[in-house]
Amino acid sequence: MHRCETMKAKQPDQELLAPAQSPLPKLLSALFYGTCSFLIVLVNKTVLTVYRFPSPVFLGVGQMVTTILVLYVSKLNKIIHFPDLDKSIPKKLFPLPLIYVGNHISGLSSIGKLSLPMFTVLRKFTIPLTLLLEVIILGKRFSLSIIISVFAVILGAFIAAGSDLAFSLEGYASVLLNDVFTAANGVYTKQKIDPKELGRYGVIFYNACFMVIPTVLISFFTGDFQQATNFKQWTNVFFIFQFLLSCVLGFLLMYSTVLCSHYNSALTTAVVGAIKNVSIAYIGMLFGGDYMFNMLNFIGLNISMAGGLRYSFLAIRGQDNPDCPIDEEKANPGSKS
Question: Is-annotated flag, keyword Amino-acid biosynthesis (predicted)?
């Protein structure tokens, strides 16, 4: 606490300006991430279940290739900037590329194994995992209000999952593995974009570049690639549109995740994803066709939503700042005036 107060005393002008500049980028980046994450789940669900596309890894390759092309063309046209490849970049990124591809593949593989509402419920376990990793890896601390909000989200997930009659061990294990990768990806992304050497675009571009070839090899040797080439819907214009839309949304999701983590925190990004997931669960109840209504499940979803909204309120007020979570207002009493 004393270290934080000393820093505030040394830089009063920056601290007074920060509250006025930070809320709008934080809010807009969170909304952008939530929208992209919402849309890609629906599109991927359509591609992998409605059209029964058998190759989730191949779809991941398409999203990586789209990311590389969009960023490289933008760099050539000087729309964006990131450093050229050199020997130091792999060291700067590690282990993010490995976590990135694990998150990508496990996420795509887990979508078709559970009903959409239960998939979104189990994805909430990303939140406590992210909080734990931020404490361990980034050395952050969180206020009691934040911890209680996170606990409410996970409690609701436990209640909702406990009423799932369509239990699938493989599906549950796949989604929980994706939770671990997602939490690690968010925390390490926050850590890697902090230095200015690579920047946001460099992190996204080189992640995709380093992992696209290994992912192609995985697709080829597991038979995923052959199933994709033999898929009969490639002549279906509507399927091609959904596939390409998934590729574009894959790029937008990567960018929006980095943007949200940059302006907020990895934990905030995870909570925004949880709120989005509950919204999808509500839609799945009405239109998905694979949801078996259960009052306990419905109560659990509402508890999770309440916890997520409470966290969002605290985050907007700046109480998700882990550097001085308890005494922030006392240390800067004139910030509201």
Answer: no
Average pLDDT of 102-128? 70
**Cα distance between residue 124 and residue 132, in whole Å:** 14
Q: What is the pLDDT of residue 17?
A: 39
The pair of three-digit structure tokens given for residue 141, joined into one six-digit string: 């601390």
Token couple for 287: 């239109």
Q: Would you give the distance in Å from CA 181 to the centre of its chain?
A: 10
Q: What is the 3-state secondary structure (H, E, C) of the chain?
A: CHHHHHHHHHCHHHHHHHHHHCHHHHHHHHHHHHHHHHHHHHHHHHHHHHCCCCCHHHHHHHHHHHHHHHHHHHHHCCCCCCCCCCCCHHHHHCCHHHHHHHHHHHHHHHHCCCCHHHHHHHHHHHHHHHHHHHHHHCCCCCCHHHHHHHHHHHHHHHHHHHCCCCCCHHHHHHHHHHHHHHHHHHHHHHHHCCCCCCHHHHHHHHHHHHHHHHHHHHHHHCCHHHHHHCCHHHHCHHHHHHHHHHHHHHHHHHHHHHHHHHHCCHHHHHHHHHHHHHHHHHHHHHHHCCCCCCHHHHHHHHHHHHHHHHHHHHHHCCCCCCCCCCCHHHHCCCCCC
Cα angle 255, 261, 263 (rounded to 5 degrees) comes to 100
pTM, two decimal places: 0.68
Name the residue with higher pLDDT: 291 or 31.
31
What's residue 244's pLDDT? 95
Closest CA to 180 of 245, 257, 111, 103: 103
Rounded distance, CA 189 to CA 120, Å? 23
Lowest mean pLDDT, pick from 86-90, 115-119, 128-132, 240-244: 115-119
Angle at CA 76, nearest 5°, toward 70 and 79? 75
Tokens (6 digits) for 38: 């919402």
179-215 per-position pLDDT tens digit:
888 888 878 877 777 656 677 888 889 888 888 888 8
